[in-house]
């Protein structure tokens, strides 16, 4: 559990502003201090992770929440690049997507996603899902902070 | 979110040599919302024999999720994890490490060996139950397993 006082840095890769706002609100109530960064497309997510351009000074995320259907560069490609990069592969990636397609689930795990979560359409269910992500990944899991 | 009505129970392989921890974990999972069947292995050798359906384990069902302790007799959890992830038939099964070890070398190594998550066992029974409940909520209720 993270009791060392350093906030957990989360990168949310999500192009839907409504979902991003809801996720932010759910995480704001979390017991564990966290900073949420939002990237709205796949190119921006990788630039953030590699601290390129305007992202030169950003914190390295401890956890990535990744949508699959993204503009510019697809979430599947982003996942593959993260898990193929020695500097990034230890960061847990939780897929958070509306896709229920079996092939997306199988491909995501094949590309080493840490977990695959489908976004419920219902607001209350969506908040429950984010809270369960928050509780497990922020309070229970020991993240690899290197 | 997965409901209790989902037909097939989720098969969990718990690899744990501490009888008290195993009993607590099994009880907490039994009380969860999602129907599940826990198979217990008390050594690393037994875990791999169950996974490979060797000898007396010929009829064992394939687990949907593995909860793996690291410090085990007759083959260490670290070796078990490496063997699972090097085996084409087994590598897709998500492994969550649940261990007493807080050593960051173990944390980093487990993620490098593609453990999906690393959980340190709280010593306090109430906190231990909370951790298992959080695993149940996230991995059994929320996650779409491969």
Give the CATH class of chain A.
Alpha Beta
Number of helices of chain B: 5
Order of helices and strands of chain B: EHEHEHEHEH
Percentage beta strand of chain A = 15-25%
CATH-defined topology of chain B: Rossmann fold
Q: CATH top level of chain B? A: Alpha Beta
CATH level 4 superfamily of chain A: Response regulator
CATH architecture of chain B, by name, is 3-Layer(aba) Sandwich
Determine the mean pLDDT of chain A.
92
Number of strands of chain A: 5
Number of strands of chain B: 5
Q: What is the gyration radius of chain B calculated from CA atoms?
A: 14 Å
Give the integer mean of the pLDDT values of chain B: 92
Description:
- The complex is a heterodimer of chains A (146) and B (146).
- Chain A is built from five helices and five strands.
- Chain A has 146 residues and is an alpha/beta fold.
- Chain A has one domain (8-136): 3-Layer(aba) Sandwich (Rossmann fold).
- In chain A, strands 2-1-3-4-5 form a five-stranded parallel sheet, with helices on both faces.
- In chain A, helix 4 (102-110) links the parallel strand 4 and strand 5.
- Chain A starts with 7 loop residues before the first strand and ends in a 6-residue tail after the last helix.
- The model of chain A has no long low-confidence stretch (mean pLDDT 92).
- With 146 residues, chain B is an alpha/beta fold.
- Chain B has one domain (10-142): 3-Layer(aba) Sandwich (Rossmann fold), CATH 3.40.50.2300.
- Chains A and B meet through helix 4, strand 5 and helix 5 of A and helix 4, strand 5 and helix 5 of B.
